[in-house]
Amino acid sequence: MNTNLNVNEKKYIFYILFGFFSCMPLISIKGYTIFIWLSGVFIIMSIIEGIMKDDFGKYRSYCNWYLLIVIFSIISAVICLTSSMVEKWKVNQLKNLVLVIIYYLIFVIFASDNTSKKAIYFLKGLYYSAIFQVLWGGMQLLFYKKGLLLNDIVFIDILHMANESVTQIKDTGIALSGLCWNAANMAALTVFGYIYTKKNYIKIMFIIFSIICGNRTVLIGIVIAVMLEILWNFLIDNLKIRYEWLVTLTVFGLLVAIFMVFNSDIRNALLNKAQSIVNIFSLSTIKTQGSASIHSRYLTSVPQLLKRSSIEHCLFGYGLGNSGYPFTEYLGQWNWLDLDAWVVECQHIDWLWSTGIVGFVLNLSWLVFYMYKGGKSGHGKKMMLFLAVVLIQGFFYNIIFNWCLIAIMCIIVVFENKRQLYQPLSSAYTNS
């Protein structure tokens, strides 16, 4: 991948920065995340650019699918606002409705650029961010071994961007979260970095991070990504085993073996980690762990909640960001706590109870459609792999955060314009 920017490409540095900082919710200004600020700048810049050029770009028909999602989200909002739900749920619904409309505007703006430059540079920045945050996660682990919490030091003591701990500590130790609040925020980002890069040593870096991260969703995502990529490369691509992969994996295996033989601490740590990985995928562990048990309940409670919900709530949901409402109202989850409106930590269940059966079908079919198209085309492999993994990860956590949604939109834009995500930018465009 060509990482050098020529003179003409330097004007797109904003989009690299937009992608780079979009997935860093710990960075905030005046109480708003850097993503919100950059989104506002992006929209204003695009409006000014359109006025100056007397051209707001061409509307793309493939944005219509997400427009339907916006329309039915508005219907969900109306049902929420006219219901007997307490004020905090209604306020949360309005905030999230505004965000959905902003996402749609961003999608339209990216799509109006028929060269896909803006989208490709955004994804380029996102890729750099994935590498940076994985390295930052490694620093988190090193600081933790010394009894220090890196994120708390930086974002509480130095930058004063948080008032409470921004480090996730579990019974097993620290969960590496990068510049996110929760380690699960790294799940889709790690997969994106792994799929995006063509460099095997960087792929291995993402794999190692997923193993030491301490989060089930991150690990499951990277395992699935590796399996799907192997299936595609080795089986679909005429069973051709690539030489560089064999060399890289062989060297890595030899290094691991040497360390295990000569260093007892590393040997024991690796053996313990291997056992923990086995436990992660163990059904008995899932049944006993509190978090996993709650996540399992989100899925198994669907029939019960469908029976107790009204027709309009079944069809159109309880409002964006309000997927936790039926669990609190009908199952008593967290009702003893004075919580703000909350979201179910399972993407598919969040869709179901936020926007109802209609919204769930629209969101799911949108992504499945492009996953299918990506698999059929010669230039959509990376899109297919990313969407497939994200959809599977969605069973384990609420995975499509704001940056992830914009990334999906940008990937679709690049695909629809028949570009490659990693295409050298200096030579990819002849008609800009």
Structure in a nutshell:
The protein contains 19 helices and four strands. By secondary structure, it is an all-alpha fold.
Q: How would you describe the overall organization of this protein?
A:
The protein is globular and about 65 Å long. Helix content is 67%, strand content 2%. It has 432 residues and is an all-alpha fold. The model is unreliable at 280-290 and 424-432 (pLDDT under 50). The strands form two sheets. It has a two-stranded antiparallel sheet. The longest helix has 30 residues, at 347-376. The protein has one domain (10-241, 282-416). It contains 19 helices and four strands. The protein has helices at 13-22, 34-53, 64-81, 87-112, 117-145, 150-158, 186-196, 200-212, 216-236, 243-262, 264-280, 283-288, 290-300, 302-308, 311-316, 325-331, 347-376, 381-393, 402-416; strands at residues 28-29, 32-33, 168-170, 173-175. Helix 10 (243-262) crosses helix 11 (264-280).
